[in-house]
Every structure is written in structure tokens, then in C-alpha cells.
Specification:
Length: 254
Amino acid sequence: MLRTVRVLAENGPVRVEIARLGGASGRLVVVKRLVAFHPTLERRLAREGEVVAKLQHPGILPLLETRAGALVYPFVPAPTLAAVLRGGPLPAPRVVHFAAALLAALADAHAHGVVHHDVKPDNVLVRGDRALLTDFGFAKDLGSAAITGADTALGTPHYMAPEQFDGARGDPRSDLYALTATLYHAAVGTPPWGADALRVAAGGADLPLDPPPGDAAPLAPWFARGLARDPADRWPDADAMRAALPGYGREVAA
């Protein structure tokens, strides 16, 4: 039994809500469900359930169960990174700490053949010193056929890799670009290239990347490589990118 407590978001036929599992005294959970018939979204929701069920990493929000037209996740009383960043950029050691954790989560997902395809501050939960990757609704399972067409752009513009902007179904290096853009936002306070991000992603502008300020300055070359337009110029995988983090192994949540 699921009893709705509060609706968190509603986007067309998809609703995300807090509910109690098993009656009034049951645990709080987050339910992602379809509230109207939509064949494509029904397939995408089912695919999300199949994908997340494969992932059992402490840096990824786990799936509790699948019900007809609904996915049930644990409720984590934590803000998103997007909400945290409304208060301004984070200290560099905290950015490095979150970078290491999220890259470990992506490495696990990629090892299971899963590309997230929508890494962004809204899809990261921040609970104290922990960062949790959520929302695999756009995820690509490399072992399965794609649900969306090849000409469908997936992602969120400020964080979307250029190849995704072109409508290509990216590989793990697309996630590395999106995570770099997310972490750059965390360090600087704004996404890379600001209002010009769409022009840069579309290849209509070749603008320099504003260097990160203060104690984040040593991250500049790391950000630049992660945001390379050509996937071949980025790190080959999440583990290599994690190993190249300035200060990796000495990161402290500030």
C-alpha cells in the first residue's frame, strides 16, 4: 500500500511524490509514477527500473521496488546540489570530495553498461558529506535497444555534452562532460559559459572558459579537459578522471 503524502513535481503524465509505504506508520519513500497513459514514457519508466535495479553503489540512490506504472525509491531528506548552489559556490575541497564520490558512482554505472545521460545539479542529492546520483530516467543501457530516436537530444542544455546536443546517443564520456559542467558550477557559482552555453555546445562559438577563482584555481586544467568538445580529448573513463583530480586523496569536506 502506498499513501501519498506530498507531490514533489509533476511534468505532464509523470508525477514524483513522497508517500508512505505500508500505511500511516510505514517508511517514507519517493514514488515516480505515470498518472496518464503514455506508451513512450511507460517504456522509459520500465527501462529506468531495469537499469537502476542493476546498480548497487553507495553513491547511487537505489531502487526499492517496481510497481505497475511506478518506481519506488527511498526518501532521502536532503537538498539537491542545485538547491545548495543557490547559496553560492562551494569551497574547492568540497568540490573535489563530491567529484571523487560521483566519479566512483559513474564508474560503477558504466561498468554495468549504463550511461546516465542527464548528470546535473538537480540530479545530485547532498546529505552532509555525501553526494548521491539520482534520476536515471534518460539512462542508456548499452546492452539494450534505445527507446528514443537517434535524432532526439537528451540532457539539460547547460550540462549536456556537445554530441548529445547533436542528438547522438553518447557513451560514458558524455557523462564525464556533464559531471564536469556540474562540478564547475559548484566551484564557480555558474555553469560553464553562462548564457553562451547553447552556442558553445552547438559549435557556434569558441569561447574561453572563465577560470575558477580562489582555491579552485588548480582545478582549471581538469575542468578544461573534462569539458573538451571532442570526446576523444576527455578522459577515457571515470576512474582515470578521478585519479587526475587535483588534491585527490586529500579531499576534505569543507
